[in-house]
Amino acid sequence: MVIKMKKTKTANRNNPAHKDGYDPIALTRAAERVVVRGNKRKYARLARPLRFYGGITSAQEVGCNLRCKFCFSDKPVRRPHSTGRFYSPQQVFNALTKEADKHGHKLISASASEGTLGQEHLFELLELVDDSKYVFVLETNGMTLGHDRDFALALARFKNLHVRVSIKGSNKKEYNMLTGAISDSYELPFKALDYLIDAGVSCNACVMISFSNKDDIQGVKDKLYSVWPGLLKSLELENITLFPKVAERLSNANLIPNTVRHRGKIINLNKES
Length: 273
Hints:
Blueprint: H1 24-35, E1 36-37, E2 40-50, E3 56-61, H2 75-78, E4 85-87, H3 89-103, E5 107-111, H4 119-130, E6 135-140, H5 143-147, H6 149-154, E7 161-167, H7 172-179, H8 188-199, E8 203-208, H9 214-227, E9 236-238, H10 244-252, E10 259-262, E11 265-268
Parallel strand pairs: 3-5, 5-6, 6-7, 7-8, 8-9
Antiparallel strand pairs: 1-2, 2-3, 2-4, 10-11
Helix pairs in contact: 3-4
């Protein structure tokens, strides 16, 4: 396999309000104004079977509070105004469970954007899941949960819930480079995990490591260990897949990954990493 990534010069666009990037919490509020309407939330697709976790049925949400350059989700994240339709929690639940029954899945989720946008919609959906045989996997980057402890604690009342917290890089500098967000917000997913564990909410961490070296990876493992040693047992290490839009975005940002996932295998592009 030959992977070509051209290098291009890009302008340094500093946010005047934050010297090294945008504020994900401010972007949360902006995104919710577009993708949340009362207890309804925008979705690009209501239900599709996926192979992850041994089989899961997932809806595709619209709207996110990060702008990760490696993200495979394009229009749902970058064009939320013109993407998707609004659905109620009941509509989403009905579509997910109908499709899950077809495939014998016990796990359902909403993915491809940020799962915590629209608390009212999320909580009503989780209430429906609690009265069913299914377990809902909440996919999140941890920004809102790390910012709002009460939000994280409120999730403790749902018994059929697992929260997957995705950490975008192995240190602040890498996170800022990959997302464009203010580097201090890198701490938020670690706070989210701390809050969730304290509240007794089932959760695990995953870390994007395609741009990390061995020392960086060990560093983030140590950081997670300091939150709770048990996080290392369930830790997922993620590598990007170079879909065309992803490759184009990375090229425009002058970013070359050390490792990528290709046809189920991890390809090392940098032997020194």
